Amino acid sequence: MSIAGGKVRWGILGCANIAVNEIIPAILAASSAEVVAVASREIGKAKAVADRFGIAKAYGSYEQLLQDESIDAVYIPLPNHMHCEWTIKAAQHGKHVLCEKPFAMNAEQAQRMVDACREHGVKLAEAFMYRYHPRYAMIRDIIQSGEIGELRGVQVAFSFQIYEVGAANNIRMDGALGGGGLYDVGCYTVSGARLVTGLEPEAATVQALYASEDHAVDMMASGLMEFPNAVGLSFQCGMWAEFRNTLQIAGSHGRIDIPEAFVPTPGGANFRVLTKGELREVAVPAVNAYEQQMEQFSRQILEDRPLLFAPEDAVQTMKVLDACRLSAVSRQRIVIN
Questions:
Q1: Which of residues 111, 128, 145 is at a domain's end?
Q2: What is the pLDDT of residues 88-131, one digit of tens each?
């Protein structure tokens, strides 16, 4: 597929809030990308979004958008249980794919997505926008420099109160659609710990509180993941607690505190390093992580460069989430193969 005009032409496969509030504005701000089409199963909704952002084309079905040969890549913000199906269909139509987190419902689906995109020669990435923020490269450099000593452990908390944003008719409250806190915010705890440690967990032990309305929906989860070298991740995540969004990395001689780990407020991306009793704050460039994600992924498509994060990374995250969900149900420690 040739790409005209030096910009990746994006189609948006759905009108979810994340697409309208974050991704479309991010594409519009990127120098290497443009939005040319949006689709919804309700044509009126697609037209409303198109009119709001000056998007040329609105489609009343996802299939119609995929059949548009002028589109180079698609962003998929559909409900979790639809990620696998529509990623594979997009690949079959020759479209590069940015798929919203969590990547899939399980590791088996995730691997099928990766295989389909490889077979059809298109790039595939998981939309973990926080990973594109420059502060995580800075944090990894500090860890690798030895400033905080040997890595000892990681603590992560990511929670919100779903009853404050409206639980009624919220797809997060439907287990059949991939609802639940582990899928929605637990994926960040797994991804974040894997990113900063550079290690893969070997086992997981998780306890969860389930919704009375749907026993497949975990409202809160707490757990321990075992990494090599006796490094552990302790985490809490879920949809029924006060908002938290923190990550702490403990070393033998210091620690790194990230107070707004995954969703920083404007100007809130700075983090703190404590080494042998001395505290310093690290200033981080004030950038929009969504814009960074769209700019970098689009550049990788245009220049046919390797991805910053290979899609196999998303498969590994799903393997860990599979183990977490199984541990919560079985109340057992689950070894991750």
A1: 128
A2: 999 999 999 999 999 999 999 999 999 999 999 999 999 999 99
The token pair at 120 is 């059809």
User: What pTM was estimated for this model as a whole?
Assistant: 0.96
Is residue 34 situated within a structural domain? yes
The tally of domains found in the chain comes to 2
Query: Could you say which of 96, 128, 160 is where a domain stops?
Result: 128
We report the CATH number of the domain holding residue 111 as 3.40.50.720
Q: Which range marks the domain in which residue 79 is found?
A: 4-128
State pLDDT tens for residues 37-67: 999 999 999 999 999 999 999 999 999 999 9
d(CA 73, CA 3): 10
Q: Is 291 within 8 Å of 30 (Cβ atoms)? A: yes
Annotated catalytic sites, by residue?
Answer: 101
